Amino acid sequence: MAANERIIRQVRAYTLRGGGADYHDQQRGHWIDDHIATPMSVYPEYRESRQSFGLNVLGTLVVEIEADDGTVGFSVTTAGEIGAFIVEKHLARFLEGATVTDIERIWDQMYKSTLFYGRRGVVLNTISGVDLALYDLLGKIRQEPVFALLGGPVRDELQFYATGARPDKAQELGFIGGKMPLHHGPAEGEEGMRKNLEMIRDMREKVGDDFWLMLDCWMSLDVEYATRLAHGAAEYGLKWIEEALIPDDYWGYAQLKKNVPPTMLVTTGEHEATRWGFRHLLEMDAADIIQPDVGWCGGITELIKISALADAHGALVIPHGSSVYSYHFVVTRTNSPFAEFLMMHETAEEVVPMFSPMLLGEPVPVNGRLTVPETPGFGVELNPEIDKHRPYTH
């Protein structure tokens, strides 16, 4: 029976703890939770650890969608028990009984039916998870990789930059660049600014002149501080300054893009969602590169639209993290010339699967490059040994 005749039999939602899609849910001592500047850095008691203010409270959401022939597609994202409730108690009605190929209609119904409490955040994370599971299911039924469903690859392999605390190790491992977390925000004054610039200078000395260095500010700055930081870092060849401001400050981003040195790019978007949010960024000329997370922005169905908008505005689309879910998209888009790899090794010194131990068959870059496997769907399976929990049913 063809895919356009397959009917969705059941939708199930599970939660998991400890790493995985909620990659901030790590043990103490991991680089990703080591005095990284955040919007909460204005409060000293929440400055040392992002987990201290609750960054790891959600956990991972697993969405499984089963067709009438028993084929199961699945995905993982960050939404936890809240997302599981939304899937089981609200979104399942738009899926069960629908045809597997009705992805566009299902997305539209999920989005419009949740507008009164959604539009961003956990609700869009959850919609993204459902959408990704649908693509995984359709690929498995058609026995095609997701990238084939999206029109096929435009390049033979992906090349990556690495995000982590050790760009010098990323260079040794063959990545094209390294993006460091910012450690000190405006509340830490001029001493913090000095330490930030010293970190960039020291890393530039380690990697030499030709290796990309970028800075992830994780929504922690204001326009004045970000402008001074950008100009101070210019002499060390900083390629871009990322997510310097809170996501809703489109006007601030537009001003910052005017303020930074001409050699530096302004990037943002991992916490933005939907074509309308990114339209605002693009029409205000607020970023050189947009960075939607396919597990948060609305899934592949919405990322296709976001990418087309960006292409029309001359902006690159370099999705945030997301492992295989990004890989299958990036390899099909000419305005996504490289990809991000999040170094989930505790000290960012080794390449390990981003969503480990949750996924089996998750590919990782070798020498900073990756050929996306042609396995049906997204090419990964859920590890049967992980402790998943289904908190709700319908």
From TrEMBL:
Key word Magnesium present: yes
Keywords, in A-Z order: Lyase, Magnesium, Metal-binding
Origin: domain of life: Bacteria
Domain Mandelate racemase/muconate lactonizing enzyme C-terminal stretches: 167-263
Catalyzed reactions: L-rhamnonate = 2-dehydro-3-deoxy-L-rhamnonate + H2O
Keyword Nucleotide-binding: no
Ranges in a coiled coil: none
Broadest EC class assigned to this enzyme: lyase
Active site: H320 (proton acceptor)
Binding positions (substrate): H24, R50, E340
Site (Transition state stabilizer): E340
GO molecular function: L-rhamnonate dehydratase activity
EC number: 4.2.1.90
SMART domains found in the cross-reference section: MR_MLE
Swiss-Prot/TrEMBL site (Increases basicity of active site His) positions: D293
Cofactors (names): Mg(2+)
Positions of Mg(2+) binding: D216, E242, E270
Stated role: Catalyzes the dehydration of L-rhamnonate to 2-keto-3-deoxy-L-rhamnonate (KDR).
Further remarks about this protein from its record: Reaction proceeds via a syn dehydration.
Listed NCBIfam families: PRK15440.1 (NF011968)
Protein name: L-rhamnonate dehydratase
Species of provenance: Paramicrobacterium chengjingii
